[in-house]
C-alpha cells in the first residue's frame, strides 16, 4: 500500500478538496476561517498549503461566517456546501447558534472548531472550559444537540472514518444537516502515514428514495376520494428539484397550492393555482383553501406552527398527508405518511391518478387577494407620514425583476414578505425555521456567492442589523454586490406589536419604551459607509425605488436606509391566523384579561395529535 505523510490537518483539507458532487464540482467549495490558537498552527498551515485547490475566506464573526455558508448551501439546493473553522472557546461557541439554524432548516455545513489538547499536557489552556466531574467534556460538546453528526478528533487516524461519515450526513436527503468535527489542536499538527487511495476523488450522489407501494396506494385513494384537496409546498420541493413536478401535478389534477416560508417561490406567484402563503402569516385566499379542504397534502414541509396555525388551521375531519423524505417529519400531526423524495412522489402519484382531475377552484378569491396586495403595497400619497413595511415591499417589488431574490430572516419582514411579496420562481429566500436575527447580511452574501447571476435584495430591520452587520465589510473586500433595504422603526417593532396583542403594555422593545434617558439616533448610512458599502438614505418611497435601480450598477453592497412606521403589521392586508403565544393567566389590566380569554378560546380548537 502506497502511503503519504501528512499532518492530520493537511490530510483533512486534501480529502475535502477532492469530494465531488454529481455535477463535477467540489461538494465542499472551500472554508471560512477566523484563526486563533486552536486552529492557526494546524489548520491554518494546511489551508495555506492547498489554497489553489481549496480556497479559504476570512470573515468577521464565526456565527455570521457560518450563516453565509448556510445561505450558500440553501441557495445551491443542498448540492454544494462550505466549511467553517474557528479557534477553541468563544470562537467555537459563536458557531453554536448557526449550527442550530442549519439543523432546524436541514441544511449542510461543516463546522471545524479547534479543541483542547488531546494529550492534556498543558491543561487548562487558554479559553478551555473544564467540567469538574468529566474530563472528556469541553465547550464543543455544546454542539451535540444542534448538529446531525458530532465527532471529536483525538487521533489522526480517526479522520479515515469521521470524514466519510460527515459527508454521508451532509449529502443524505433524509439526514441532511450540520456536522461538527471538533479538532484537537495538537492532533491537527500531528503527522501520520496515510493511504494514498484515501485521497482519490469521490463523487457523492444524492439519492432519490422511492415511495413505499402501500403508502402510495393509500395516498392515491385519499386524493381520489377528495373533493377539495390542497397542496402545501415546503422547502423539500426545492431540495428535491421538484418545482416543475409540483407545477405539472397541480395543473394536471387542478389542485390549489399554498406555501410555507421555505417553499415560497417554488411555484411562481403568477401561476393560477398558487394561492399564496398559508398559516399565521397567510393570505385570505390560501387560508380559505386550507380551512375548507377535505384533504391537506404537505410536500416537503415540517408543518411548523406558523404553517398549521398552531394546529388550528386544518379542519379536524380532513385527513392530513405528509410527503417527506424524512420519516420523522412525515409522521407529524398524525399524518398519513408517504416517505419519499418529493419529485419522485409527485411523479408516481400523478401516474397513478392518471386523468383524475378535480373540479373548479376559487379563482375569484385568488384574484381578490392579489388585488388587496396591490392596494396595500401601493405607493402612499405624497406627504410627511412614514411609510409602512408593506409600502416598502411594494416599492422594491415594482423595482425588481424576474431575476430578483428577496431574502430575510427575522422581525416584521418575514411575515410581511410571505404575505405580500410576489416572486418569480426561485425569487424568495427566507430563514424562518430558526428566524435568527443577524442572519440577513451574511445570508445575502452567501446567496449572492451561490447565485451570482441573480439580484439579491436583503430586507433587514434596524434591530436585526444592529445584531450582526460586520460581514458587510467582508462583502466589500470580496466585491460581492447585493442590496440591503434597512427599515428603521427605532426598535423591535414586530415584537412590540406581539407584546400588545398578547395583553401586555409597550415595554423594552421600541427605544421610546426603554428605561433610558436619551433615545439613540443611529446614523446607519454613516455606519454602513464606514465598512466600505455604498450607503444612502431614501427620502420616501419613490426615492427608494430609484435607489434600488441604481444599486444594480455597483460591484459592492448597497445599503438603503428608510424610516418606517412601527405600528402597522402585515396582517392588516387581510388573511392571517391565530398563533399560540402563551398569555399570562392572571394580571391586573382589562386588556390582559381579554387577551387571556381570547387565548383560551383559540386553544380549545387545537388538534390533540402528535
Keywords summarizing the entry:
610 residues; alpha/beta; Rossmann fold; 3 domains; 6-stranded parallel beta sheet; 36% helix; 3D-(3,5/4)-trihydroxycyclohexane-1,2-dione hydrolase activity
Protein described:
The protein is an alpha/beta fold. The chain folds into three domains: 3-203, Rossmann fold, CATH 3.40.50; 213-366, 3-Layer(aba) Sandwich (Rossmann fold), CATH 3.40.50.1220; 377-573, Rossmann fold. Helices cover 36% and strands 17% of the residues. The chain has 24 helices and 22 strands. The strands form five sheets. Strands 4-3-5-6-8-7 form a six-stranded parallel sheet, sandwiched between helices. Strand 15, helix 13 (327-330) and strand 16 form a beta-alpha-beta unit. It is globular, with a radius of gyration of 25 Å. It starts with a strand and ends in a 7-residue tail after the last helix. The model has no long low-confidence stretch (mean pLDDT 93). It comes from Paracoccus broussonetiae. Its EC number is 3.7.1.22.
SSE layout and pairing:
Layout: E1 3-7, H1 8-16, E2 19-20, E3 28-33, H2 40-49, E4 56-58, H3 62-75, E5 81-86, H4 90-93, H5 96-105, E6 110-115, E7 149-153, H6 159-171, E8 179-184, H7 185-188, E9 191-195, E10 202-203, H8 213-225, E11 229-233, H9 236-240, H10 243-253, E12 257-259, E13 274-277, H11 284-291, E14 295-299, H12 305-308, E15 320-324, H13 327-330, E16 336-339, H14 342-353, H15 363-376, H16 389-399, E17 404-408, H17 412-420, E18 428-430, H18 439-450, E19 455-461, H19 462-467, H20 471-478, E20 483-488, H21 493-501, H22 524-530, E21 534-537, H23 541-551, E22 558-563, H24 590-603
Parallel strand pairs: 2-10, 3-4, 3-5, 5-6, 6-8, 7-8, 11-12, 11-14, 12-13, 14-15, 15-16, 17-18, 17-19, 19-20, 20-22, 21-22
Antiparallel strand pairs: 1-9
Amino acid at each position: 500500500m502506497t502511503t503519504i505523510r501528512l499532518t492530520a490537518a493537511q490530510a483533512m483539507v486534501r480529502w475535502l478538496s477532492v469530494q465531488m458532487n454529481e455535477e463535477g464540482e467540489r461538494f465542499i467549495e472551500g472554508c471560512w476561517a477566523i484563526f486563533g490558537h486552536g486552529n492557526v498552527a494546524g489548520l491554518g498551515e494546511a489551508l495555506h498549503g492547498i489554497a489553489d485547490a481549496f480556497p479559504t475566506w476570512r470573515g468577521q464573526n464565526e456565527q455570521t461566517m457560518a450563516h453565509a455558508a448556510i445561505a450558500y448551501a440553501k441557495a445551491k439546493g443542498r448540492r454544494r456546501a462550505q466549511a467553517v473553522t474557528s479557534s477553541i472557546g468563544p470562537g467555537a461557541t459563536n458557531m453554536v447558534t448557526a449550527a442550530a439554524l442549519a439543523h432546524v432548516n436541514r441544511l449542510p455545513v461543516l463546522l471545524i472548531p479547534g479543541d483542547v489538547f488531546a494529550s492534556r499536557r498543558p491543561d487548562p489552556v487558554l479559553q478551555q472550559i473544564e467540567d469538574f466531574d468529566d474530563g472528556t467534556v469541553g465547550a464543543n460538546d455544546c454542539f451535540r444537540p444542534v448538529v446531525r453528526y458530532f465527532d471529536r478528533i483525538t487521533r489522526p487516524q480517526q479522520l479515515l472514518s469521521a470524514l466519510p461519515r460527515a459527508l454521508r450526513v451532509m449529502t443524505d436527503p433524509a439526514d441532511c444537516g450540520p456536522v461538527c468535527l471538533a479538532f484537537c489542536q495538537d492532533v491537527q499538527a500531528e503527522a501520520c502515514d496515510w493511504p494514498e487511495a484515501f485521497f482519490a476523488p469521490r463523487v457523492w450522489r444524492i439519492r432519490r428514495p422511492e415511495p413505499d407501494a402501500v403508502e402510495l396506494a393509500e395516498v392515491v385513494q385519499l386524493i381520489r376520494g377528495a373533493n377539495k384537496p390542497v397542496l402545501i409546498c415546503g422547502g423539500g420541493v426545492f431540495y428535491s428539484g421538484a418545482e416543475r413536478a409540483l407545477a405539472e401535478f397541480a395543473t394536471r389534477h387542478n389542485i390549489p397550492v399554498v406555501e410555507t416560508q421555505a417553499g415560497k417561490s417554488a411555484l411562481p406567484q403568477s401561476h393560477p393555482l398558487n394561492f399564496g402563503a398559508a398559516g399565521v402569516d397567510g393570505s385570505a385566499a390560501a387560508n380559505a383553501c386550507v380551512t375548507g379542504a377535505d384533504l391537506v397534502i404537505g410536500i416537503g414541509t415540517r408543518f411548523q406552527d406558523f404553517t398549521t396555525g398552531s394546529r388550528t388551521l386544518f379542519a379536524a375531519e380532513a385527513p392530513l398527508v405528509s410527503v417527506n423524505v424524512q420519516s420523522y417529519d412525515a409522521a407529524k400531526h398524525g399524518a398519513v405518511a408517504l416517505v419519499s423524495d418529493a419529485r419522485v412522489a409527485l411523479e408516481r402519484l400523478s401516474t397513478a391518478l392518471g386523468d383524475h382531475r378535480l373540479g373548479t377552484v376559487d379563482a375569484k378569491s385568488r384574484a381578490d387577494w392579489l388585488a388587496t396586495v396591490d392596494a396595500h403595497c401601493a405607493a402612499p400619497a405624497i406627504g410627511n407620514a412614514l411609510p409602512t413595511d408593506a409600502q416598502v415591499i411594494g416599492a422594491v417589488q415594482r423595482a425588481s425583476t424576474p431575476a430578483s431574490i428577496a431574502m430575510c430572516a427575522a422581525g416584521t419582514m418575514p411575515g410581511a414578505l410571505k404575505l405580500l411579496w410576489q416572486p418569480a420562481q426561485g425569487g424568495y429566500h427566507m430563514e424562518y425555521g430558526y428566524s435568527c436575527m443577524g442572519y440577513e447580511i451574511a445570508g445575502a452574501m452567501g446567496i449572492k456567492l451561490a447565485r451570482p447571476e441573480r439580484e439579491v435584495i436583503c430586507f433587514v430591520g434596524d434591530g436585526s442589523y444592529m445584531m450582526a452587520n460586520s460581514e458587510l465589510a467582508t462583502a466589500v473586500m470580496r466585491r460581492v454586490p447585493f442590496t440591503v433595504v434597512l427599515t428603521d422603526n427605532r426598535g423591535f417593532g414586530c415584537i412590540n406589536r406581539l407584546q400588545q396583542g398578547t395583553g401586555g403594555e409597550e415595554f423594552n422593545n421600541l427605544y421610546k419604551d426603554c428605561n433610558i434617558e436619551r433615545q439613540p439616533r443611529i446614523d446607519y448610512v454613516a455606519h454602513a459607509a464606514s465598512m466600505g458599502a455604498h450607503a444612502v438614505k431614501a427620502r420616501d418611497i419613490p426615492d427608494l425605488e430609484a435607489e434600488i435601480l441604481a444599486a444594480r450598477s455597483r460591484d459592492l453592497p448597497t445599503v438603503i436606509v428608510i424610516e418606517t412606521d412601527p405600528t402597522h403589521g402585515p396582517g392588516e392586508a387581510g388573511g392571517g391566523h391565530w398563533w399560540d403565544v402563551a398569555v399570562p393567566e392572571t394580571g391586573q389590566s382589562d386588556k390582559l384579561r381579554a387577551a387571556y380569554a381570547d387565548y383560551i378560546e383559540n386553544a380549545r380548537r387545537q388538534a390533540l395529535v402528535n
